[in-house]
Every structure is written in C-alpha cells, then in structure tokens.
User: Fold Phosphate-specific transport system accessory protein PhoU from Halopseudomonas salina.
Amino acid sequence: MTDKKDDVYGDHISNKFNDELMELKTEFLRMGGLVESQVDQAIQALINGDGPLGEEVRAGDKRVDRMEMDIDEEATLIIARRQPTARDLRLVIAVIKMVADLERVGDEAKKIAKFAIKLADEGQAPRGYLEVRHIGDHVLSMLRDALDAFARLDSNQALRIMKEDKRVDEEYQAATRTLLTFMMEDTRNISRCMSVMWVLRALERVGDHACNIAENVIFMVKGEDVRHTPVEEAEKVVGR
Assistant:
C-alpha cells in the first residue's frame, strides 16, 4: 500500500518544478525498465545458447551508461536551480544513488551476456542452468518490485524486498555448493561450471542492488537511512 501521507512530491506552487521532479522520476523508471530487460535477455541468451542476443545485451550497456549520466546531470541541475529542501532533496539524492545501482545492474547484465556468448561458442550446456533460471526469476522480481515501490512511494513493499535479499543469498550459496560438487565429480566440467558460477554471482549482485533501491525508497518516504541496519530496525522505521 502506498504511503499516502508521504506521497506529496509534485505539489509545488511552481508547475515547472513539479514537471522537473516528475521528469526525473520518469527517466529513472525508464532506465529501470531498460536494465530489467537487459538482465532478462542476458539470462535468456545464456539458457538458450543465443550468442547474438548476448551481443545485443553487451551493446546495450552503452545506452545504460548514457542514461545514468543524463539523469545525474538532470538531478544536479534541479539542486542548483531549485535548492530543494526536505522531501524534495531526499527524492533527488535518492535518485542519484539509485541510478548508480541501476547502472551496476546493467554491468551485471553485460557480464552475464559475456558468459552467454562464451558458453554458446563452446556448444555443450553445463550444469547449473536450472539454478540460473530460478535465481534469475527471483532477482528480476525483486528489481521489478523495487521500481514499483519507487513509483508508488511504497515503503512497505520496499521492506519486503529487503527481506527477500537474504533468501537470494541462501539460494546462491546452495547453487554454488551444487556446482562445486558436480565439478569434483567430473573435472572436465570445471571451466564451464565456473562460468555458470560467475553468472550466479552476477545475479546475486542484481538482488543486492534491488535491495539498495528499496532502502532508498524507505529513505525517501520516511526520511531515515536504513542502509547497513538489520531488517528488524528497518521494519520499525517503516511502521512509524
């Protein structure tokens, strides 16, 4: 449920200021949609052995980088022109932080695409693709929900994403143990399985960045920084 009492961005006397804040939010969500698609396509390229799709994802990283710079510039200009205070300043600062997380998600998609191309060239699919699909679906859901929480200023949904991060870590550790066991049973699979392990690591990092975005949503809505704090403490902040 959206925090209605805190959903007050865009109520300024200056319509121009309202438009600038709305444009900042829109561009952030547009970039979020792009990196979400990049991760999804990178996973599909890996699982389907689709090297050309992997190349498309790698090429798309430049667009992600360009969007990050454009949004940073837009946010900086808002601070310089409007000198925002309180909730507006929290929004602008949070976007600057979150856009860096989105750019890093794009980097992780590029890494996955690189391994997708490598494994497609090698031909034989190694073990671990089931785990890739499972963890990939999980972190993509987290990223999608984090963007939705931002769009709706929903601190409760953001808190749920923070709680999911621990589950992703557990799934990643379990998948890693499975692949290590398989490599010990047949050393011929070491190289290919190591590539899959790097993909799993990249997906786990996507989950971390989704969690970072969720933490910044709570900062926007509640005005308290919940980074580096236990989930239980964040829960108290959201409940206030």
